[in-house]
Amino acid sequence: MSFSVVTRELTVNTRGKGTYELTRELRGFVSASGIREGQLTVFVRHTSASLVIMENADPEARTDLHAFFDHLVPETLPFLVHTYEGPDDSPSHLRMALTRTSEVIPVQSGQPVLGTWQGVFLFEHRRAPHTRKVTLSLMGTTDPA
Amino acid sequence: MSFSVVTRELTVNTRGKGTYELTRELRGFVSASGIREGQLTVFVRHTSASLVIMENADPEARTDLHAFFDHLVPETLPFLVHTYEGPDDSPSHLRMALTRTSEVIPVQSGQPVLGTWQGVFLFEHRRAPHTRKVTLSLMGTTDPA
Amino acid sequence: MSFSVVTRELTVNTRGKGTYELTRELRGFVSASGIREGQLTVFVRHTSASLVIMENADPEARTDLHAFFDHLVPETLPFLVHTYEGPDDSPSHLRMALTRTSEVIPVQSGQPVLGTWQGVFLFEHRRAPHTRKVTLSLMGTTDPA
């Protein structure tokens, strides 16, 4: 078999709190790599943004996701001490810790095996716009299975 | 070294909310693959079911897991708007986002390196029975270490 | 390309609840492996300890992390039934389920692609000291990209 590793860094410009879909970029990256069977790792290089795989059909599902995290980790938690970077800083780390930094998606026949309704999103937890770096790493074979 | 990738899709028929153990299927898949050193990815292809690694000795540990998620993400959260598929739909996405969609387990000497008490479970978040697809992807070498 | 898999088990002696940084050990392991392009999997072999990637600049960020998990999953949840191993046992499984058991970090030019502020920590959830096993698995090529 002919194995290879292909790595690429995505830049995502966020416009404040919310979810930003990466699915099209992931599919394009896998397709362009020529790798047919393997494993795709998605890794966020930050501690105040994370990854989440969510339903991407009805945007209301993500409205509920955003509202839920504001409810579960409010910016007003009275015991927080790491506050000098603003009230949204420590909550952003907590929301990141509750979701994911890395996600690994099997690749089969040159496609990530995402389910019909699965989209991959960057989850921005800070209020201000940020430039986020997401590393994509694909390892596998260019031969058919 | 002789590298290969082996992929298989598991079908899990769930009977409503709860955890369904996959550990035996994972061990059987790794064993049958012939791969001795590598990495096993487990990936759930849904947004209302997830993965969790839990103690598999005392079933009461999982009773507490189920009760805790009913407590942390109740079906009665007043701010949810994505409700037309039933009161358990949006909470199922939130419970999925708080647990895992992918899990990667190192494989050594032809065995996943799970700890003594670790079991891998599909975590079903919907009330109704569902047919769930879980992709197993094993990449590594058939040579001894 | 010249592929290989390198696996090593780290032992971490914990002194009760809290986070224990593993970043230096991960970097040393990757560096010593000779692998330049690939994927590093970190896997905790326990159900009452987990992994978390957190800011490692200001220790107050981790103070907030510890306080938040005491708040989110208190040891006094009235519905817990798995209590014979102590009040911190079932909460430790729940805190583990909300964080991560495996984390995969791309390796590029012989270095894990961690962001500037990202540290990898073992998250101990039990009060008593424990000896924890963390498996590191690195798969990739020794050739330059």
Alpha carbon gap, first and last residue of chain A: 10 Å
Q: Provide the spatial order of strands within the biggest beta sheet of chain A.
A: 1-8-3-5-6
In percent, how much strand structure appears in the residues of chain A?
35-45%
Instruction: Using a beta-carbon cutoff below 8 angstroms, give the protein chain pair with the largest interface and the number of residues from each chain.
Output: A-C, 34 and 37 residues
Q: Would you tell me which CATH topology of chain A applies?
A: Jelly Rolls
State the helix count of chain A.
3
**Domains of chain A (count):** 1
Query: What value does the Rg of chain A take, in angstroms?
Result: 17 Å
Q: Major beta sheet of chain A, specifics?
A: 5 strands, antiparallel
Oligomer: homotrimer
Could you characterize what this model shows?
The structure is a homotrimer of 145-residue chains. The first copy, chain A, has 145 residues and is α+β, with helices and mostly antiparallel strands. Chain A has one domain (3-141): Jelly Rolls (Sandwich), CATH 2.60.120. Chain A contains 3 helices and 8 strands. The first copy, chain A, has helices at residues 23-33, 59-72, 89-98; strands at residues 3-13, 18-21, 37-44, 49-55, 102-108, 111-112, 118-124, 131-141. In chain A, the strands form 2 sheets. A 5-stranded antiparallel sheet of chain A has the order 1-8-3-5-6, covered by helices on one side. The longest helix of chain A is centred in the middle third of the chain and has 14 residues, at 59-72. The radius of gyration of chain A is 17 Å and the shape is elongated. The interface between A and B is medium-sized, with 37 and 33 residues.
